[in-house]
Specification:
Helices cover about 80% and strands about 0% of the residues. It is rod-shaped, with a radius of gyration of 40 Å.
Amino acid sequence: MSVEKVEKYKEEKARRKEILAKEKKKKMLTKIALWVLLVAVVGGIGTGVGVTAYNQYQKYLASLPDYTRTEMVLPDLAGILTEETEEAEG
């Protein structure tokens, strides 16, 4: 039984560099995947906040009164305009 243990140890020692390289590569890929996931989550949250803020701003702009009219509209309180149009038609 000790001969089997010695043989196993020799085999592991011979492949130690390969095993360590694989573990290092696996750790690096895990770190990269986690960073990509973190950036995606933070970007998604940031995009959601930005879109919400933009929509609120557009809603605010739509609620403001519109002063861009060029003609002046006065109400016909005395009924003058309706009398003039009736006389012009008749």
